[in-house]
Amino acid sequence: MKIQKMISLDQETARLASKKTNFSSWVRNALRSERNKQEGGDFSQMKLEQYQEISERLDISTNELFHHLTHKSDDEIKVLVHLLKNSIE
What is the average pLDDT value for the chain, to the nearest integer? Predict the structure, then answer.
């Protein structure tokens, strides 16, 4: 079971939060970043930055992307990977 906790924001923070298209995702990413800094150093920070870049470019969280990919067939994933590789080159 997932436990959700609510937090209260002061007026200025609420104003800034309203400007974010996905404030919850942004907060999760910031908290994850802080946790990774404490736990693991440069490698985990680099991975986190890659995940954040993917999220921003696709306008989808990496968790959502992973969820969608796990529901694709092997052939569909191969095609997607091929398209990604070709778009990078």
Answer: 77
Q: Tell me the two tokens of residue 44.
A: 């985990």
Q: In angstroms, how far is the first alpha carbon of the chain from the final one?
A: 43
| Stated pTM of the model | 0.35
Whole-angstrom distance, CA of residue 51 vs CA of residue 55: 6
CA-to-CA separations, 45 to 40, 56, 73, 83, in angstroms, rounded: 8, 16, 31, 27
Tokens encoding 7: 């937090």
Instruction: Quote the distance between the C-alpha of residue 85 and its chain's center.
Output: 21
Give dist(CA 7, CA 25) in Å, integer: 15
